[in-house]
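Structure (tokenized):
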């Protein structure tokens, strides 16, 4: 299996509850290295650009409001099979459907305020990483 990089976001519901450290521990315990990380506040426009693929979905407006409602931690994770591995560690989008022990099962408030985001493909990971980080900010 190949070493990959994926984009992770710790969302405003989690930063508000001081869960950054606990979520990072879940990621690191699963063998994912945090090779870049910054805490930022998204403008609504930047949230809209990030989630442009969901523009036509009914939840798009609420999602962009939520993602710009408080600080987020954007991070690049690196490891063997990192994209799929991170999605296993996060659990299902809807916390009611997430497996025991996953980040969303433990911490998510609901399907929108679901604590973390993770890229779902190599193509999206490349776009999402470049959306927030210059190469010089990623230290493997
Ligand atoms: P994320 O993995 O960041 O991708 C899109 C986000 O939209 C998702 O997590 C949720 O925060 C949010 N969302 C809100 N409602 C839904 C829904 N019905 N289906 C999928 N995603 C939703």
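Design, position by position:
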């Amino acid at each position: 299996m190949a070493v990959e990089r994926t984009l992770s976001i710790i969302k405003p519901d989690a930063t508000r509850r001081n869960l950054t450290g606990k979520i990072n521990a879940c990621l690191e315990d699963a063998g994912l290295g945090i090779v870049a990380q910054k805490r930022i506040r998204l403008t609504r426009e930047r949230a809209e650009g990030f989630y442009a693929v969901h523009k036509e979905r009914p939840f798009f407006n609420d999602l962009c409001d939520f993602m710009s409602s408080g600080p987020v931690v954007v991070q690049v994770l690196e490891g063997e099979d990192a994209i799929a591995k991170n999605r296993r560690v996060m659990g299902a989008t809807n916390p009611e459907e997430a497996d025991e022990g996953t980040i969303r099962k433990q911490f998510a408030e609901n399907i929108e305020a679901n604590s973390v985001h993770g890229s779902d493909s190599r193509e999206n990971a490349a776009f999402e990483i470049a959306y927030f980080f210059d190469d010089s900010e990623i230290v493997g």
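Reviewer-requested clarification: Residues 122-132 form the longest helix (11 residues). The mean pLDDT is 98.
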